[in-house]
């Protein structure tokens, strides 16, 4: 199975969405203090970068 640039960007976006969900859930359920807000903010950042990767598919 050959992986081209679009496949790699798709997998990267998928992995980043999973990591974003993990970080947001850590911030929501594990940490109840200020660290939870940081985890959630980083998770939202992962979503933003995954969105960029997804929009680059087919253009690179």
Low-confidence stretches: none
Output the number of helix runs.
2
Q: What would you call the structural class?
A: mainly alpha
Helix content: over 70%
Kindly report how far apart the N and C termini lie: 20 Å
Mean pLDDT: 90
Described by strand count, sense and barrel closure, the largest sheet is: none
Order of helices and strands: HH
Task: Give the number of DSSP strands.
Answer: 0
Secondary structure blueprint with pairings:
Layout: H1 5-30, H2 34-56
Gist?
The chain crosses the membrane at residues 7-28, 34-53. With 60 residues, this protein is mainly α. 82% of the residues lie in helices and 0% in strands.
Detailed description of the structure:
There is one protein chain. The protein is mainly α. It has one domain (1-59). 82% of the residues lie in helices and 0% in strands. It has helices spanning 5-30, 34-56. The longest helix is centred in the N-terminal third of the chain and has 26 residues, at 5-30. It is elongated and about 45 Å long. InterPro entries: CAL67264-like. The chain crosses the membrane at residues 7-28, 34-53. Keywords: Membrane, Transmembrane, Transmembrane helix.
């Amino acid at each position: 199975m050959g992986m081209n640039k679009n496949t790699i960007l798709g997998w990267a976006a998928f992995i980043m969405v999973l990591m974003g969900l993990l970080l947001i859930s850590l911030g929501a359920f594990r940490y109840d203090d200020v660290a939870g807000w940081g985890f959630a903010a980083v998770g939202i950042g992962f979503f933003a970068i995954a969105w960029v990767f997804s929009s680059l598919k087919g253009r690179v």
